[in-house]
Amino acid sequence: KAGVTQTPRYLIKTRGQQVTLSCSPISGHRSVSWYQQTPGQGLQFLFEYFSETQRNKGNFPGRFSGRQFSNSRSEMNVSTLELGDSALYLCASSLVSRQGDGYTFGSGTRLTVV
Amino acid sequence: DQQVKQNSPSLSVQEGRISILNCDYTNSMFDYFLWYKKYPAEGPTFLISISSIKDKNEDGRFTVFLNKSAKHLSLHIVPSQPGDSAVYFCAASEAGGGADGLTFGKGTHLIIQP
User: Fold this and answer.
1) How far apart (Å, rounded) are the C-alpha atoms in residues A25 and A44?
2) CB–CB of A43 and B42 under 8 A?
3) pLDDT-derived band at B99, boundaries 50, 70, 90
């Protein structure tokens, strides 16, 4: 079966712009979680959506937001981009919410802010 | 404040020998621990997990040991193979999944030497 698909794979944006990243989970998976990976901080939890509702949110500013659609696809948006937002953004899907070992990660979107 | 620490950024092991990756945690509410493996340009893939009610879990060449009193866990790979060369992340979650998703360490880059 198809895995978790993240688009685009690479993105270059200018400071101050906004960006939208997309994640299509594995068919049947209703939970989508987003993580930010940077060399200095490792993987940090952004938020989790389950059945179109945000269930959890990590310690990130309000510039980071997301949503989930009825088909479980999810988007995350970062507004007013800063240089420090340059990172690999990973999406993970699972059948149910809060199931760490059921996570399947996508390959990520590499965002570079210049 | 890092709640999950992997103090060795890299580890080099000869093929056929045992690889031991270590992880320490500070949050006593963590009760479920996982190891993920990540190749370049791919998302992390789930490797093995352990619940806090156990002190050992095995899956083929991979064994995870948990020492709750020391807040320490380790991943043993025996025998190590070239395909094991990757970055390994330790992760933890609180009872019922917690409100913060998974908390990851910064990773250990394992290099298997031929």
Assistant:
1) 19
2) no
3) low
pLDDT for A71: 94
Nearest to A106 among B43, B96, B101 (CB): B43
Q: For residue range B52-88, list pLDDT tens digits in order.
A: 999 999 999 999 999 999 999 999 999 999 999 999 9
The answer to whether B43 faces chain A, any CB pair under 8 Å, is yes
**Cross-chain Cβ contact A42/B104 below 8 Å:** yes
DSSP-assigned letter for residue A9: S
Considering only residues 2 to 41 of chain B, which have any Cβ-Cβ distance to chain A shorter than 8 Å? 32, 34, 36, 41
**Could you tell me the end-to-end alpha-carbon distance of chain B, in angstroms, rounded to an integer?**
38
pLDDT at B102: 87
Distance CA A23, CA A8 (A): 9
pLDDT band, residue B2 (cuts 50/70/90): confident
Q: Across the interface, do A43 and B89 touch by the CB < 8 Å criterion? A: yes
